[in-house]
Each structure stands twice: as structure tokens, then as C-alpha cells.
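Reviewer 2 asked us to include a model.

Predict the structure of this chain.
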Amino acid sequence: MSWFIMGTGIALWWFAHLFKRILPNIRKYLGNFGAPIVGTLLVVSLILMIIGYRQTEFLYVWQPPEFMVHINNLLMVIAIFLFTPAAKKGRLVFGMRHPQLIGFKTWAFAHLIVNGDLASLLLFGFLLAWAVIEVIVINRLDREWHPLEGQGTYIMDGLFLVGSLVLLGIIGYIHYLIGVWPFPA
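Predicted model (C-alpha cells):
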């Protein structure tokens, strides 16, 4: 049952995110009610993925090398940084198209390289695939995209980097509370 719950959460995640692109007329028809509906679907999908993932039995597929944890943590800092407003206010990635989706792909990949069980491979693999497809769909539908005007500052990049490191520490502590310590000694 846990595999079904996790799979339902993944499918709901895909549907909620791609809804306005694959069914634009229905989304337009929903008007102002569309955003809360999609938001609710996303929250439900997250809950289902977490519950399903946590309840699946551990089915060993491969053993990641220990050094991958360090690569994961570096990738996590990059992923968190890309999730911040850095793309609009910082200089390093100023005007980047899809910084949050690139950050999401980085997050999913980072989790794939340190988790060798079937549930992790399915969950993070399908989420990575969703982010790749989302970028492709957006790019095909919005070919007229242009980078932002102006430039960000390195000071903002520094602030976002410090914030990303703090968030990584908080996320690491939350992982510790659920039984996974992501920072090797």
C-alpha cells in the first residue's frame, strides 16, 4: 500500500504542476479558484509522497560510496541557493531562466547519488524527470523569453549563500530528527 501512496503522490505532483500547461482551457475556466485548487493538490501530493516514502520497506539496489555524501551536501547548497531570489537580485545567476527548476533538479540528483534503495530511486528519479519535462514544456510554450534587464550584486549573492548554508543546517537538523544524519564526521 505504501508504494501506491507514494506513487499517487508523485502522479498528483506531476498533474498539479503540468495542469495549466496541458489543460490551459480548464485552468482558465477555473479563474481565481484554480490557484488554491492546485496549491491544495500540491500539499496533498507532498503529504502522500512523504507518508508513502517513509512507510516503504527498504529494498537495496546499490550502495553509494561514502564520499557521495560530501558531493550531495555541496549540491544541496547550490540547490538551495538557486531556490532563493538570487536569480533576480544576485549577480552570479542573474537573469537565469528556470533557476528554481534547476535547483529542484540539483536537489533530486543530489538525493539520487546518496540513496541506493528502490523507494528513493523511484521518488527522486520521478521528481527529477518531472523537473526536466517541466523545463521542456515551458520552453516550448514560451519561446519569447528574454533575460531580466539590469544586473544583480555580489553582495546579494553573498547574503543568499550565507542564507543557503543556514538553511542547509536547518534541513540537516530536520533530517536528523527523522533519523538521517546528512553531515559526515
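The two ends are 36 Å apart (CA to CA). Helices lie at 2-22, 24-30, 34-55, 68-83, 86-89, 99-112, 118-141, 154-177. We have added this to the supplementary material.
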